[in-house]
Amino acid sequence: MEISSKEHTHFFSNNTIVPVDRSSFKSESSASKEKRSCCGGIKIFLGALSFVYFAKALSGSYLKSTITQIERRFDIPSSLVGVIDGSFEIGNLLIIILVSYFGAKLHRPRIIGAGCLIMSAGTFLIAMPQFFMGRYRYERFPSTINSTVSLSPCLQDKSQTPLPALEKSQAKINAGCEKEAGSSMWIYVLLGNLLRGIGETPIQPLGITYIDDYAVEENAALYIGCVQTVAIIGPIFGFLLGSLCAKLYVDIGFVDLDSVTISPKDVQWVGAWWLGYLIAGVISVLAGIPFWFLPKHLPKAESRKDSSTSSEHSKFITEENKDQRTSYWQKAKLAEMAKDFLPSLKNLFGNPVYILYLCASIIQFNSLIGMVTYKPKYIEQQYGQTSSKTNFVIGLINIPAVAFGIFSGGLIMKKFGIGVLGAAKLSLGSSFFGYLLLLSLFAMGCENSDVAGLTVSYHGTKMMTDYEEALFSECNSGCSCSKNDWDPICGENGVTYVSACLAGCQASNGSGKSTVYFNCSCVGTFGSSQSSSAVVGPCQKGNECPKMFLYFLVISVITSYTLSVGGTPGYILLLRCIKPHLKSFALGIYTLAIRVLAGIPAPVYFGVAIDTTCLKWGSKRCGGRGACRLYDSSALRYVYLGLTLVLGTVSIFFSVAVLWVLRKRSSPQDETLSANGERGACGTKSRKDNFVNSDQLIQSTYWPEKETRL
Questions:
Q1: Fewer Cβ close by (within 10 Å): the C or N end of the chain?
Q2: Which UniProt keywords apply (predicted)?
């Protein structure tokens, strides 16, 4: 946007010393041309960066939506899935400091373009195992697959089974074992996510600082706000894409779908998880193309040539620091920049407000990242929902609530003229009430489904003994059953049985999803039930569960909004305590700390904790433990929500410490926080207009992994 001559006159009249520069003598026409050139170039960069933010947010959220699909497809526990999810952060760890520190001195647009290509290569690599490993095999009794062979589920002895059928089945198992023994295809998913992390690294620090350096000062806030708004749309489309792909069978296009005997409600169902990664990879490639044609530097706007720093930063940084920043951004050799690295790091970590806010953010993101990573699994297991519906709900309800919360936080700051001290209070309050609302979710869970031998005995009483021993009872003692099988059937008494064999079924009719079992001795002896038939698939959750799921959604949306309101004020606190010449470096360190100390470990130890609540593990074709088939609903609820709340409570204590430091160091006259030139400065002023300008508010909406506040 062009600045009027009256505004220029007013600007210069407020300065006692006006720097003499050749640009002051330019003709009106040449100045106008330069402004138009600047605006055109920065808007092209703005559009390209917005598309990149959309692409990276889409692929990141799509990975979250496919966590359970990957777990089932590769038959791995939740803890290992957590390692795969954390590999993205490991990729960031490898180069983020180098990119954030040296990248600002190099060709930033081309570095971002190269990052997009690496990100797309990683996304394609994640999908590759689908094309190199065999077709997905799930546990099913032969009679549900092949109607030409009539077998009794309860095998009294192996002479009941036709010899050709047994030999054919054993040959398939041996062939599958030979193929599985030589490959662990989930490693390719891990490596692909690692590459995604490497490629995504330069986008945040370099893209935001490029806009801040070359946009007109009063427009920089609006531009950065536009980028963050577009970034919010990415997770919405990512989860909706995950919902669509979860409806499609994993081997769609490779097998006859009529032969598939499981439905999306079955815990063994795997959707077309790989399809979304191909789509996300193509989008990442397209997003990176414009950056190869953008210049290293853009003409600076007239309003930014006369000051080495923004007017807003000048309120908190001493004159000595202004001169330091001016000299810092001069052309320097690589060795000189490297020499200044350690002093800059020491300067940054000498700021107590920055350190305390960093600690609070690390612990809070531990709770939020762990919660969001396994939120789809929690909804599926706790409320009996399909993966498709779970992703649809998260994408269409939770993420818009997060976006509205971030916007509301900035709006509240601007509307009520809240300063830095008030921002600390608002951030603390939103966290406190958000976690308080989360506490109510303990009362909104579903009871365990009645599964004979796991959650209830075969006589209808609650389980008190080891489940492996309890799978066998008098009613199935005459059958040759395996405790490792998971082929659930639903008896007419409303009880789920691990397999037709363990239910004591003597006959079956039909094939595929329409198979019906008869003369099931365990079904007939359960309670007062007189019927002895059962159908394929587990029984549905209790009648109260749909109502509890509705309550959960309402509280979850309110919680998401409440926590997100505090994100903008908290980030204002961070940005106001950073020297201008350390801005890019400080954001890189902040992002690094969040990802190393929260993004990497949180999914792993959350996954380990969730694995402890498993009641029935699947078994791999060649032996060994596979993915979990059934969780203890009550234990899962206490572990998942409890771990989230404990971490959130600890982060609140650090937020209180931030507020205490701000109060202690504030001046009674102007509430200004400052330090000497070596330690950095952070200030709070009572005058509202000193803080709440648009540049401050919108710029602060950038904070890492904001899509995790679901």
A1: N
A2: Cell membrane, Disulfide bond, Glycoprotein, Ion transport, Lipid transport, Membrane, Transmembrane, Transmembrane helix, Transport
